[in-house]
Amino acid sequence: MGGVPGTPAPFHFNGGIFNISRIDKTIPVNSVQQWTITNSNVFGHTFHIHDVEFNITARNGNASQVKEYEKGWKDVLYLPRNESATFIAKFEDYSDPIHPFMYHCHFSNHEDGGMMQQFIVNNPSSITENIPDVSQYSLFPNPASDVIFIENSGIEIYYITIVNSVGKSVMMLPQPEINKGISIAHLPKGMYYMQIMDAATKTTITKQFSK
C-alpha cells in the first residue's frame, strides 16, 4: 500500500501499528464512554469494535448528520476520509484483566497490516487482591530501569500483565521468555504491579516493583 521499509505503516491508529504486548486502552467495568473516531487518511475505513455495541451520536460533530439507517445498536461504522464519528457504549460485561478485546479497521488488508489496537475491561479495585507468594517468584532488580527479571523455581508462566498504580494495564505478555528479562524501558517512572499467572494452576500472584 505504498509503505516504505523502516517507516510507519500507511494505516494505523493513533500513530502506531498493532503490538500484541501493548494494551492501548484500559476501560473501567460498567463505565459509559464516548469515543470520537477521526479519519485523517486518504482512504475511507470501516471501524469495528469487539465486546460492545454502540450508538452513533454524531458525525463531524453534528447529531443531525447521523443517517436514519445508522440509528440503533451497531458494532461497525463506515468513516469516509477527513470525517469523524462519535458514539457511546457501556462496557458492562466480560471484565477480564488478562484477555483483551480488539478494535480495528474491518478491511482485512488494513487490519492485517497493523490497523488494530487492543483494550481490556478491568476492575481497578482488583489490582492487589492476589496475595504475593515470595517462595515462588521474585523480581530483580527492584527498582528497575530498562529490564526486569523474574526469578522462580522452574514453574512455567502462562501470562504476565503489568498494571500501573491507577489500574491501567500497560503491558501483556502471553507465555513470555522470562530468561531474557522483560523490557520496561518505555514505561514512565512510577510504581507498578506485575500479575504472574502460573501455567499449571492458572492462579495469579501479584508482585510490586518500581522504576
Quick tags:
single chain, 211 residues, mainly beta, Immunoglobulin-like, 2 domains, 5-stranded mixed sheet, 4-stranded antiparallel sheet, 1 helix, 2% helix, 42% strand, elongated
Task: Report on the architecture of this protein.
The chain has one helix at residues 108-112; strands spanning 25-28, 31-39, 45-49, 55-59, 76-79, 83-91, 101-105, 116-122, 137-140, 147-152, 157-164, 169-174, 182-183, 191-198, 204-210. The chain has 211 residues and is an all-beta fold. The protein folds into two domains: 25-123, Cupredoxins -  blue copper proteins (Immunoglobulin-like, Sandwich); 127-210, Immunoglobulin-like (Sandwich), CATH 2.60.40. It has a five-stranded mixed β-sheet with strand order 1-8-7-3-5. The protein has a four-stranded antiparallel β-sheet with strand order 12-11-14-15, with no helix packed on it. Strands 2-6-4 form a three-stranded antiparallel β-sheet, with no helix packed on it. Strand 9 (137-140) and strand 10 (147-152) form a beta hairpin. The chain starts with 24 loop residues before the first strand and ends with a strand.
